[in-house]
Known about the structure:
Layout: H1 5-37, H2 45-74, H3 80-89, H4 91-95, H5 98-114, E1 116-119, H6 126-140, E2 153-157, E3 176-178, E4 186-190, H7 191-196, H8 207-219, H9 231-246, H10 263-276, H11 278-284, H12 286-296, H13 300-309
Amino acid sequence: MLVTPDIDRRNRRSSRWLAGLVTIVVTSVCLGQSAIHWQNLIGYIPWCLVVGVAFGLGTYWLSRRKCRRRLRVMNRPFPNEWEEILKTRVDFYNALNEFDQDRFRKLVQIFLAEVRVTGIRTDIDDTIRLLVASSAVIPIFGFHDWDYSRLSEVLVYPDAFNDEYQTDGEDRRILGLTGLASLSGVMILSKPALLAGYNGAFAKENVGIHEFAHLVEQQAESHGLPVEVPHDTVRQWIAFVARELKDPQHSRAHINEYGYTNEHEFFAVLTEYFFKSPDSLKHRDPVLYDMLRQIFHQDPASLFGHAHRSPTH
Length: 313
């Protein structure tokens, strides 16, 4: 999601190559058509070159547009009000060093510039928008190049909702939903549940992180895990999930019962535990914790432990 100097260079190089290829192809097609319909082909060569170059420049601009837009967003000043919200509500952000906090802020800026956060019968303020963005950034913070390419909008509901997406009536038990099929590209979050997930030490669950974990799994290319995960860890994880779901009564994970619904909920619930209660998870099952550490390329137990120790030094 971030545009590093290396990513920018690679984008420039690939854009030039693609633009050159388009220029050659369009110019050749134009010359071929001119040779068929006109005897004076020489006179049309300059015009064909102009057409080819125009298509090439357009291709270069389109290929560079996303990268350039993100660079502009990253260079914008981060509002002081946003910084205060992160410091007040997001423990993960507070545990980071200055360099990583700057990276976190840039990821938040890019997410909010590209994904709409819309209130449905409820008001949306900067706190809600930043908590949604933080929920998106935390699970992927350890990846070098992650893009929520399938997400265009997050809908924030005033309360829990039912299977018909209604916030009144019976059976309102859903706190979050990652859209598929007709809701593709859309995520739904309960506003009270989102806020509760960032209620400091009192928060045992985090619906935002839970739903973005689902999105990470849906966009992953290898057995529901990102491509940056080592192959050995992938094999270890597949075997672990199959064993745990086959016999929940003797599970080693000891997570919320809802996590045993299927392998997708198992991954999302464990992701919550990994980022919300890393010390507890690591103490209970060091092997499981190490798998998640390799999956997410993060070590929140050490991160939070260092943050708690640093004021005494």
